[in-house]
Amino acid sequence: xxxxxxxxxxxxxxxxxxxxxxxxxxxxxxxxxxxxxxxxxxxxxxxxxxxxxxxxxxxxxxxxxxxxxxxxxxxxxxxxxxxxxxxxxxxxxxxxxxxxxxxxxxxxxxxxxxxxxxxxxxxxxxxxxxxxxxxxxxxxxxxxxxxxxxxxxxxxxxxxxxxxxxxxxxxxxxxxxxxxxxxxxxxxxxxxxxxxxxxxxxxxxxxxxxxxxxxxxxxxxxxxxxxxxxxxxxxxxxxxxxxxxxxxxxxxxxxxxxxxxxxxxxxxxxxxxxxxxxxxxxxxxxxxxxxxxxxxxxxxxxxxxxxxxxxxxxxxxxxxxxxxxxxxxxxxxxxxxxxxxxxxxxxxxxxxxxxxxx
Length: 358
Known about the structure:
The chain is of the alpha+beta class. The chain has 14 helices and 18 strands.
């Protein structure tokens, strides 16, 4: 028997351990319960989406749901902008680090059939020696990559306008670009422009290798630090040109995602990673597919040393991802070994994808 992870209902986001169920998110139940009692309680509550639709956000907050999940689900459901964004399928399976790494350290993500290695780029150093600037990380880097890839597909061009256009996009994601945010966006844009990627794909005893940059070129502007308005207004690069290999992969394997979904979880890098992964994976399944915690940690938890710490972080972020993907169906198995992914409708129906993508 399995227990359905009812999308966004935190009562269903449970870790099963022997005969008890323990919540790994801010508690809906204040203690452990038997499987039967907890399942009955979960089933009687309905989904967060149903309660929001019937009673509204404020009434739903009065229930013992995690506030972040209610807020994300309510923001997604009330978003009237039907904008589409796109991401290369490779980024849906292997993501960037969530936190800053030492500037000279690379990043590696392994899967059953793939491996992504991100090497930090270098720039001119003040003492005549080049210096590493570190690999991209965090939610800002993810939002910039979504913007770059979406604009390239929208315009059918490797050249993408940045500056005010990127600033407008970040503000659409509820990220005011000023002060610390301005510095963070500038930093992540430079890291993206200089880093180098290696994708490995395994098929039987064959390994395919692709080395590429995200950008071939970019033009950066230094704001006038004596002019506050200019420092706020001129964001950084005027234009960026995606590398031919990266753009070709994007054109051949784009994954459509909902702008409103990304907007609702824009400050949470792991929730973004889980959402785009589910958007890529679930609709392509033909049958229920189990996935172990070990495999999940390999893909999403490279920065976590202990499995328990990873699960405590992953489960609530799964709740946030499902908050903005109501059709996503995911279960936890009754032995606590991992997840079961079920075939689900994609967040964006293929018929709604612009004709330019074919």
